Amino acid sequence: MQSVMIVLLGIAGMSFGWFVYSKFIATKIYQLDPDFVTPAHEFNDGVDFVPTNRYVLWGHHFTSVAGAAPIVGPAIAVYWGWVPAVIWVTVGTIFFAGVHDFGAIWASSRHKGKSIGALSEEVIGSRTRALFMIVIFLVLLMVNAVFGVVIASAFVNTSSAVFPAWSAIAVALVIGQLVHRNFNLTILSILGVAALYFSVYVGSILPIELPEQMFGLSANANWIVILFVYAAIASMLPVWVLLQPRDFINGMQLIVGLILLYGAVLFSMPDISAPAFNSQLAEGAPSMIPLLFVTIACGAVSGFHGIVSSGTTSKQLDKETDARFIGYLGAVGEGSLALITLVAVSSVALAATPEMWHQIYATYGSAGAGTFIQGGAQMITNGWGLPFSISQTLLATMVVLFAGTTMDSGVRLQRYIIQEWGDIYNISLLKNGILATLIAVVCCLMLAFGAGGADGNGGLTIWPLFGSTNQILAGLTLLVISVMLIKMGRPARYTLIPMVFVLITASWAAIIKLIEWYQAENWLLVTIDVIVIVTTFMVILEAVSVIAKFRREA
Fold it and tell me: pTM for this structure?
């Protein structure tokens, strides 16, 4: 019964965010103009700039930003207790993530679809762009490496998810061609989701496994390599061929998955076995403050969302007024996923007693996506009566497909940045799309195996670094939006207050981890962390200087 109250309170808060707060931001702060000519129309090239139906674009945006992070982060963060995690997810979605994602789409659209890095040059200054792009590249590097490891682990541990995960690509390719030929979207949606769930059933009875050793690599390592080969190919295709239809179908799949999970809570009304505040922390466990705010990134606020919002979504925006629907409602959808994840990993569906729960959560980081799959699958089985094997395959497929779509978008965005560097520094080789993609993929593989060893199993050791860097980028994105609002003479406190909070907590967490990695002599992570901290400090100084100068001249 406790779980029902968590769900009802969380949904009530997010409903207030969508129906009240986002409308206020849209009309009074961002002041959306239905007649504004968006970059999708101004630069329509049929590849990256493509005017897109807002429901299809919402599907692309939602699944690109969601990934596995709103599952992995909350599943880890509940270690400190379910109350702080639920509060941060709900408050973060309403006042942080929605404003951030919505704002990044709007700001980019107002500046010819420029990425947040390129936009920072126009809003703050040329030096800021160079610094900003370093942070963005590092975030993309980490998110791609982490999600590659997450998917590989899911394939190894839940082999029944392999068939539906790859079948989804074939379904998306077919739908992409039919949508491009103006077939009825509703019919295609129904057929696409039906095909996807049929493949889930097939996968549950037809698991696919790689040999334990192949080409001198473990199964986990081979999956990581295969996934990045796929991501490289997918990232070079026009967005309408695979990215849009795959994201749209995955978005529909998430809606079905959320209905199953939330319905399971209402039908079975499971009690909570996790403590409200965990008083049995392991010796040496990290402090809840500030680590909670970087462990749960996606699902509360995430810098990666700003990259997607300004990197791909803004280039497909049909009308400026669609930005609220796509950006803010996308954040609400992700918050809903994070909320139900917290219920799944906190309830008796995962652990029948508090003692069993403490065994699973013996240490920080001992649980993650696999815990959500087990707890959520049992919850669906208890609530809907589906066989556990099908429930488990369904959720494992959901995790894999979300992480996979994020990799597609992430590698594409890395390519954009490398090509932008080629333009900035006049290096013709970097402007080549194939070479830029190859560089991006090689860097991701180096980090996945460099941090995780020869089989990549330890790749999730970079999660805390990803979390702090990701939140720092969110703060910097809010900083750019705030400076833009100040220059336009509009109230900026609705972005400045979240920006200050996020930058303080994320920088604090980055410094804590820097000390830990220095003591452990993990020089790879120390180097990346130092670059992020120094770059962030320099961007903030540049922004403060610009604001001061603007106010003096006003």
Answer: 0.89
